[in-house]
Amino acid sequence: MISSILTSPALYNITQTTQAQVGIETGLKAVGRPGFILLDNDIDKNTKKYSSMKEFLYQITCLTASMAVVIPVFKKGSFAIAKKLFKNEPIFNAFKNSDAFNDFYKIKENRTEKLREIYGEYGKNYSDEELTRHINLAKGMIETTSIAGSVLALSVLAPLISRPFIRPILKKLNLTDSQKTEQNKININV
Q: I want to staple 34 with a disulfide (CB 3.0 to 4.6 A). Which of 52, 110, 124, 175 is the partner?
């Protein structure tokens, strides 16, 4: 059963984009990390609750930042950026945006012939190898901008966004880090 799931064409198709991979990984972290914290018997009960909820909220923030930045901004902007960087590449003028290209990219058979048709009269001037290079350039540009967006979202935006709202949520839930509470008691008594 597991091997049929892992070798499923549907799973393969889902994992072919950076956005999907980041979303799946972050979603698993949002469940897995808090779960493992809760399973740790060497941590006191209050610290486990606090740490697991803090980690859950942080991972949800990461997922939200990634979805809000990568998908609408970087994915949609990838062709606009590519048109400026690669002015002489016809692939970026042949498709309105990355969504249109991705719909084309899903075609597995006779992809170069389809691209030759899309290019119209100029398509006859390109060999199959050149058309394949055009396709790979467009797909590479989309994935490169998605990776850049993921890095920005996960390493810059998520920490900035999470900082002001995670602690107030934890306070509203009456969750405190018992180690910090003990530390404060010691500092007050000294």
A: 52
